[in-house]
Amino acid sequence: MKQPLLIIAGPTATGKSAAAAELAIRMNGAVISADSMQVYRGMDIGSAKVTEEEMRGVPHYLIDCVDPSESWNVVRFQQKAREAVREISGSGRLPILCGGTGFYIQALLYDIDFTEMEEDTALRESLQKIAAERGPDALHAMLAEKDPASAAAIHPGNVKRVIRALEFAGGTGQSIAAHNLEQREKESAYSAVFFVLTMDRKKLYGLIDRRVDMMMEKGLLDEVTSLRDAGIPRDSTAMQGIGYKQLYGYLEGEYSLDEAVRLIKRDTRHFAKRQLTWFRREKDVRWVDIDSFPSREAVWDYMQRTAEEYYDSITF
Q1: Among 28, 36, 85, 224, whose Cα sits 20 to 30 Å from the Cα of 254?
Q2: How far apart are CA 275 and CA 194, in angstroms?
């Protein structure tokens, strides 16, 4: 029988971390973070990293495990997440995968093979040179010619993703969008219950704006300043995170602090929209509309009951 896996996903600010900790307590579980930014040490405020208090004594994996100077990617995540699942299951606990990075969740859930996506250093350097000399739009135009579907899904300013898509198309001859669709048709490697939290869009955007204001009050600018002063370069993977990227631009004198905050809010709202779009393409997902429940406890009751009924049905 496949190993059980409980997944709690959804856009930012929907309360995934609180739900994961609560269900871990109720169901004897441990949490594996599927967040591309919470892995970095010293990047706590901007990543909305779960605190010791919020963990509530529940073991959490893949948080604070690399320095901001290191690169983190889906291949490293997949390897470490597999190890965490084995360790958690071996201890008799339920692995709970929690986060909003859909590609990470997909990589673990469907056991995607990334061997065909090995890095071509020479190609990457040549593409980086094009972006530096001719600008991101020129690079994006190359992607639009080779892989129109991926170009439509990737913003021209996201140079790293554009390069990755071009690398994939050059190395495999296949559209990365087509590859991702193909992978989603694979059978799950786990006996998974996959929840996606959602709520009214206007309400979600309001929560996002308030969350950004709270991050600024807690010292997000000081956090980014410290990272910059420590020598973390602007083009590093860590500094591409929302909040860090925009405040780095402010520190470089490109715009005012008010403009940086406006950009953080806008880009976070856009990110939440992309997260929802991603999860709508996933199969066998149980959508949890938080607004349809009288309380968060009622949401957690529903998730626990649904998961336990599913696991009981495949056990007997």
Answers
A1: 36
A2: 15
Cα→Cα distances 276→198, 226, 272, Å: 8, 33, 6
Q: Cβ distance 227 to 244 under 8 Å?
A: yes
Q: Which domain holds residue 61?
A: 4-112+186-315
Q: What's the pTM value of the predicted model, to 2 decimals?
A: 0.83
Residue 293: give its domain's CATH number.
3.40.50.300
- The residue count of the chain comes to 316
- pLDDT score of 141 more than 70: yes
Residues 30 and 101 in one domain: yes
**Total structural domains in the chain?**
2
Residue 56 Cα distances to 6, 19, 52, 114, angstroms: 18, 12, 7, 35
> Which is more confidently placed, 282 or 171?
282
- Give the per-residue pLDDT at 314: 81
